[in-house]
């Protein structure tokens, strides 16, 4: 599918500072991200790629994208693409991100960042070696409500944090051949859903000093239902869970010595939170996902654009060291529950 290229090439930005995106993969999350990006000023989705040209063409036609490619290599070779958004399942993140970085493209990569910390370390090292921007698409960290919650915690609004509680789960009828039950594809609840509670705890408390976990495993050896207890030398704890066999409230609470903050639903992209302090009326923190029709992914796209225009190699809001720390914690959880993927070595 032909389309006009921008006037710049390489890893800069297009005319007038427009950041030109290439979307790698054509699933539901890629569609949501594309719709959000297309509503941003100074942003344009100029190309999309899939493993088949038919899938890429169909996606391009639905979203009004100028070029569709039947291979990842063609997308990363497109000189009009400034940033590649990797929206594949996490089992393919290492290969896709490596390909884009070696082609000289900046990258935003969906979470979980990789299958394990070794793969994550390799990607971070490659981005730093090439002087390219790389960020995990942890949209939670860019959500205005979550950012305000983190700010309140840092400022001592609820005293010293003692406990973080967070869960994410739903019950699905996943057959043995489904990707969520396939070890080759990094199946299980942990990397798909558990990454959110773990990342939320990391945002507020940093990398834990101790990790304990228990899980129900499938016959294929992936986790169906997992509970985690993280501990810090400060005495703080995090009680976290994830599941693909049970309906969870998908809520979070941060409990401190002088109060607590509740994120009562969809804590990973909330539209509000409630601050409760002793002797004071509850305070509601509100900030919707943005203009009508946007999901909240626009915040991460805007942060990537800001950093790329500024020539920054990573985002201070979603730092690479933080993504590496989360992957180390996820590795530790898998070690405790006995889940190994063929990619682990």
Count of helices? 10
Give the radius of gyration.
20 Å
| Share in β-strands | 15-25%
Secondary-structure content class = alpha/beta
- Count of distinct strands: 14
The 3D shape can be described as globular
Sheet with most strands: 8 strands, mixed
Identify the strand order in the major beta sheet: 8-9-10-7-11-12-13-14
The CA-CA distance between the termini, in Å, is: 41 Å
Please state the average pLDDT score.
93
Overview in brief:
This protein has 345 residues and is an alpha/beta fold. Helices cover 33% and strands 23% of the residues.
Notes on the structure:
The termini are far apart. With 345 residues, the chain is α/β, with parallel strands linked by helices. The longest helix has 18 residues, at 320-337. The protein has an 8-stranded mixed β-sheet, with helices on one face. The protein has a 6-stranded parallel β-sheet with strand order 3-2-1-4-5-6, with helices on both faces. Helix content is 33%, strand content 23%. It has 10 helices and 14 strands.
